[in-house]
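G., the chain you wanted modeled:
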Amino acid sequence: MADNLSLVTEPVTKLLTPVQLSMLARQIVAGEEDDEKHIEEVLKVHRLTRERFSVILRNPFFINALDSARVEWNSIENTAQRLAYASQWFTEQLLPVVTARAMDTNENLANVVKAAEFLASVGGVKAPAERGVDPKERISITIDLGPDKVVKIEGSQGGVPENEVDDRLLIQGTANPS
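Predicted structure as tokens:
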């Protein structure tokens, strides 16, 4: 018990290293500084109690690190990163809502399809056309229709374009391909 109390009263440098204090400052600034839930989440990540954090808040190094993190976070060069971070956070918060709506049988089918496309894109699931086909993966189908007639169809796994069907359909063993 005495060890726990001594941690609170010891200099803050014994609690966290300067690098850890800088990381703490950046994480606080990256969220809403006046949002208690955000602060609690950051403290939890760093395994800090409110008491230890109150000691850190009075530390001159941390105060400077917090000010520097605010300047960096709000700089014009950081706008794209900030927007990406915020977009990712909000997207993550929306996922359960979008999923629930997509699973609702009363939801409009067009909206369900859009939601499914959104969820697939977030999850990195690609449509078959976007996956690509290995050019080495070819298919050949031979149908034997008797002693003088064989139908042979060749193509790739990606399918045969309609305008090439006649060129790909070869009837062997007869002069009349009907």
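The two ends are 94 Å apart (CA to CA).

Shout if anything looks off.
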